[in-house]
Design the sequence.
């Protein structure tokens, strides 16, 4: 019971198609509204990182569902601890930008995954920092955001080819 934060990483068993990613984004939004869990998810073909905030009972249920989802491989919980207040105001999901910034790039994801082999908590803190940065980059209009229900162009790759 009580407000908690949970950070996990996993390896997609196969690269997810754009339509699948959009479906997941919608699903997460719908469920998040029902159980008052908010999350930030970063997808890349090699790694998925996600931070969730909510009541621990709700987080356990979401984690159970995710663990049964065959699209995830090798799910590792990096952090799970009580928090005083939430910082995620809008559930968001995005794809690793093709124009990476200093914090969110392929190398940093690999580095966090390597750290997780030795020190789970340190990897969790690094993942949390990276997801926070990613969230703020998305909120300020970075092209990689997926906004379920929006009718505008949704550019998953960060390139403008399809915009
Ligand atoms: C990368 C990825 C991340 C996901 N994250 C969440 C999530 O944060 N919350 C959620 O409810 N479902 C999430 N899902 C979807 C669940 O794994 C699951 O498919 C969905 O909740 C339906 O579960 P059910 O069929 O047991 O009801 C995610 C799926 C994938 C592939």
Sequence:
């Amino acid at each position: 019971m009580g407000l908690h934060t949970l950070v996990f990483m996993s390896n997609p068993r196969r690269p997810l198609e754009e339509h699948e990613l959009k479906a997941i984004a919608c699903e997460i939004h719908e469920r998040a509204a029902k159980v008052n869990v908010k999350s930030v998810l970063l997808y890349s073909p090699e790694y998925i990182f996600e931070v969730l905030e909510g009541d621990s009972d709700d987080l356990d249920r979401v984690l159970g569902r995710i663990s049964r989802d065959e699209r995830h491989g090798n799910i590792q919980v990096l952090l799970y601890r009580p928090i005083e207040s939430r910082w995620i105001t809008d559930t968001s999901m995005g794809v690793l930008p093709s124009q990476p910034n200093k914090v969110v790039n392929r190398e940093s994801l690999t580095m966090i995954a390597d750290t997780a082999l030795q020190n789970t908590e340190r990897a969790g803190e690094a993942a949390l920092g990276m997801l926070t940065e990613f969230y703020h980059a998305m909120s300020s209009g970075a092209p990689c955001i997926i906004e379920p229900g929006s009718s505008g162009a949704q550019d998953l790759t960060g390139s403008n080819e399809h915009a």
In short: Residues 24, 27-28, 31, 39, 41, 48, 50, 52, 62, 65-66, 68-69, 71-72 surround flavin mononucleotide (CB under 6 Å). The longest strand covers residues 72-82. DSSP finds four helices and six strands in the chain. The radius of gyration is 15 Å.
